[in-house]
Amino acid sequence: MGISFDNLAPPRWGGEVPDRVERPACRLGPDLVIDPPVVLSPMAAVTNPPFRMICREMGAGMVVTEMIHARLLLEGDERTLQFLDLRKNEHPVGVQLFGNDPVMLAEAAARVVEEGADSVDLNMGCPMKKIVTSGCGAGLLKNTDLIYEIFKTMGDAVDVPLTGKIRAGWEDSNAVDVGLAMQDAGASAVTIHGRTRGEMYDGHADLGVIAELKRAVDLVVIGNGDVRDWQSARRMFHATNCDAVMVARGALGNPWVFREIKADLDGLAIPAPPDLDDRRRVLTRHVELYVETFGVERTTFEIRKHLLWYFRGSAGEKVLRKALRGLKTQADILEALDAACEACRLASPEPPIQASS
Ligand SMILES: Cc1cc2nc3c(=O)[nH]c(=O)nc-3n(C[C@H](O)[C@H](O)[C@H](O)COP(=O)(O)O)c2cc1C
């Protein structure tokens, strides 16, 4: 997908850390409050139930599923239906849909609400060629009339808040036009990743575009792009006046980012980075939730990338990479984790480098 982590690596923002910004919980609808106003981004092949639950436990105020193809959902595609597995203790959870047919999206929205979605989100940001050439994802940004029709039709079908996740625009920013179309159609919130489709993941998110959108609409505005710690969250709130922030790459291997941002919003001391024992405990829980949800065989394949994210840049990474070959059982996974933790311990009495650094 051409996703880069470079823009999350230091030094990525010079200058002073802005003063703390007070932000109350953010209301999306009569029954839906994001508290604290920090959301886990939708991420394909990442934000499945185990990861969503870990992030909620770490303090995320809301989580969003991976994107779900509306047509495949309605056709009963087995793999797509699995994405609709919402757990009792992860709410509030938004379900992200992907498609461009208003009637189909409205039917899919009704279906996901039946399954317990607290809100329904429309993907208007995916930059992949295959997706945009079919007029979906960021391809929708070129057609504000269609965006209006989609939200209107979905709004007639469901009672939960409707949200849309956009990029700043296609090549140039048209976020305000998109936001106003959504607002006129009755949407509740817009999440904006401050890069255009053309920018993919290059450079840094443009906070000015997010601020402009916030000034122009009455919708809840959720700022997204390069938030990876309490300092960058402050900067997003400060520079854009957004109502909530959304974190994607900064949470990969680092669900602690939510507790950090929550503490800062609450005016509390920023918790120390997790030590090895904390990490071992959360990783073990992540593995257990994964096995419980998907079974051991699937876990041994899919958990690898998560574990590597947790140890990225640490002395345990190389050891882990080797130990991850040939995993078969849950015990094998935990042994690989122990080996990685031990390598970190031997290399330094300090905890490994923050996963997102
Ligand atoms: C692995 C991965 C998968 C993603 N999948 C989705 C997706 O399914 N839907 C979506 O709207 N955005 C998706 N995104 C984009 C993120 O939600 C987010 O907008 C983007 O990464 C910028 O935020 P960040 O700087 O916090 O990473 C994905 C990003 C990553 C890294």
From TrEMBL:
Gene3D superfamilies xref list? Aldolase class I, Putative flavin oxidoreducatase, domain 2
Protein name as catalogued: tRNA-dihydrouridine synthase
Q: Note the superkingdom of the native organism.
A: Bacteria
What is the role of this chain? Catalyzes the synthesis of 5,6-dihydrouridine (D), a modified base found in the D-loop of most tRNAs, via the reduction of the C5-C6 double bond in target uridines.
So where's the catalytic machinery, residue-wise?
C126
Key words, A-Z: Flavoprotein, FMN, NADP, Nucleotide-binding, Oxidoreductase, RNA-binding, tRNA processing, tRNA-binding
SUPFAM superfamilies per the UniProt record, alphabetical: FMN-linked oxidoreductases (SSF51395)
Q: Which InterPro entries match?
A: Aldolase_TIM, DUS-like_FMN-bd, DUS_fam, DusB-like, tRNA-dHydroUridine_Synthase_C, tRNA_hU_synthase_CS
Family recorded in the similarity comment: Belongs to the dus family.
**GO MF terms, alphabetically ordered:** flavin adenine dinucleotide binding; tRNA binding; tRNA dihydrouridine synthase activity
- Organism, scientific name: Bradymonas sediminis
